[in-house]
Each structure stands twice: as C-alpha cells, then as structure tokens.
C-alpha cells in the first residue's frame, strides 16, 4: 500500500512539473515497477523483468496486455500500467503461446479482462502441461481461441492475431497492432541467443524456418517487432532484418547438422565440438540451449 501511495504521489509530482504524457511515462520507468516499461509508438510498448517480453497497448480508449511472465512480474506490470492510465478491465489479454514464462502471471488478471485470447493449440498445450504437473487449479486458460486468424478493434487500434504454422511450438501467435504497425512475435524470435524449441508441443525447426519466412513476407519494412527473448545487451525489439537473421540461423543449423551426420559424426561428437553454427556465428549466447538445438535438429535431418 505504501509503495502504491508513493507511486501515485510521484506520478502526480511529475504531472505538476508539466511533463508530457510520453515524458511522464519514461520518467515512471524509475518509479512504477521493478521492471522496465518502454514506449515503442502509438501507445504501444513493452515491459521486461523476468521471463518472456510483455507487450502492451494503453490509451484512454484501449488497454491490451500480451503475455504475463510470472505472478510477481504481473503484479508489477499491473501496478505500473495503472499509474499511467486507470482502467477497470483490460480490453484484451493475449498469450503468444503456452509456456509458463509467458502465461504464469495470467491468474493475476482474473476478472480484469473482457477477452482472453490465444491459439487453440496454445490452450490445449497449456492444459496438458498443467495436468502433467498437477497444477490445473493454478493456471488461467484463455476464454477464446482461434485457428488461423483473429482480429478485434479496441479504441483506435485494430489488434490481429495470425498463426503461420508450427515452429517454436504448434501454437505460436503473432500479434499485430495494425495502426501502430508493431508486431509481437513471442518466442518465434530469440534475438542472437540459442532458441528454446519444444518438440513435445509440436515444435520443429523446419516449420519454424517457414514461419519466419512467412513473417518476412506478411509484414513490411516499417514494422517494429517485439521479441520474446534476447541475448544480454541485445534489444527485444527490431526489424525484418532480425527476422531474416533468425531464419538464417535455423537454416544454417539444419544444414550443419545434416552435413555432419552425413560425414559420420555421432550426435555426442557433434555436441562436444560445436560452439557456434557456421555462417550463423551471431547466435552464440544462451549456451545451455545449444545442445538442445543440435539434438532436435539431429532428429529432423
């Protein structure tokens, strides 16, 4: 309670200083949350703290949250958002996919949204995972699902969801704020770090490569993309060039593993000798996932 009073009083103080809404928002990065709020454009921004990058839209006419990290982080997010724009309910809560670092904070928003949307497979995967861990009572599932495309107008913004096939999982949505031209890719893009892939939930590298190609062709050179994760000192937003770079990483990974397998290199030998993927050397961070990438690719080629 004292923390919220401090935030409220500090925010009023910023207003008294005559700061513009954007300046106040940026200043509130130091006040409103344990994490970082960043405006991208047209009232659309992202929040980072722990887990997958959260996207948001906040204006007097609309409120949208994409992904929720974990409960503590969602509490911080909600507190920070409400210092910027008071609202009783989100218009939309969206999950890019089912993994816990993107959905773990969902219960914090129980009763605080009008619609909660995800791909149909994401809902299935989330429920299967929760049942397996005997945690079904601890999660909040989407109330609405789609299979190919979904769209809604909220305030002055049109929010659309597209599914381009299995990649990271078999239920990854791309969420596009059409007027702002900002698209959240969730875990379809790991910026310069070895990506996590989930074959148990339908993920596969060959499909992922195709999905990234579809993204490049569907959106345009002015689209700003939000990434699910990034290597340290790399941004969680970028352009179509970053999508192409990730596509190249997967292409080179599959080529490299196939070539080594054909030469007679064993999987264990491959894992032991590989530090980077030839012709995709930018992907050298997040080493704990490098072995997983090699083993999954091995099974595909």
Name its key features:
301 residues; Metallo-beta-lactamase, Chain A; seven-stranded mixed β-sheet; 36% helix; six-stranded mixed β-sheet
Low-confidence stretches: 1-33
Major β-sheet strand ordering: 1-2-3-4-5-6-7
Rounded mean pLDDT score: 90
Radius of gyration: 20 Å
Q: Strand portion, in percent?
A: 15-25%
Task: State the helix count.
Answer: 9
**Topology, number of strands:** 15
Task: Write a brief caption for the model.
Helix content is 36%, strand content 22%. With 301 residues, it is α/β, with parallel strands linked by helices.
Describe this structure in words.
By secondary structure, this protein is an alpha/beta fold. A seven-stranded mixed sheet has the order 1-2-3-4-5-6-7. A six-stranded mixed sheet has the order 8-9-10-11-13-15. Helix 6 runs antiparallel to helix 7 and helix 7 packs across helix 9. The longest helix has 24 residues. The N and C termini lie far apart (56 Å). The chain is globular and about 60 Å long. The chain has a domain of 201 residues: Metallo-beta-lactamase, Chain A (4-Layer Sandwich). The protein is built from nine helices and 15 strands. The N terminus is likely disordered.
